[in-house]
Write a structure and sequence with these properties.
The protein is mainly β. It has no helices and 5 strands. It has a 5-stranded antiparallel beta sheet, with no helix packed on it.
């Protein structure tokens, strides 16, 4: 896991690059990776992807790979 800033954003190596979400098969730019802390104490890593249309979606970081 990469370093996380005070706001919960991870410094992921694919930020700003074109990626593919293997779950939805969608492609776009990786805008952010956040950490969500759930009530049971576990931390979930969430990738935020923006396609050309501009409508972002989120997916598990494990679903993200470089596009192309």
């Amino acid at each position: 896991m990469n370093a996380v800033d005070h706001a919960g954003y991870e410094r992921h190596e694919l930020l700003g690059r074109q990626v593919r979400d293997i779950a939805s098969r969608g492609e776009g730019e990786l805008m952010a990776v956040t950490h969500e802390v759930h009530t049971d104490g576990r931390v979930v890593r969430v990738a935020h992807i923006r396609p050309v249309s501009g409508v972002e979606w989120s997916t598990a970081v494990a679903n993200v790979q470089t596009a192309g």
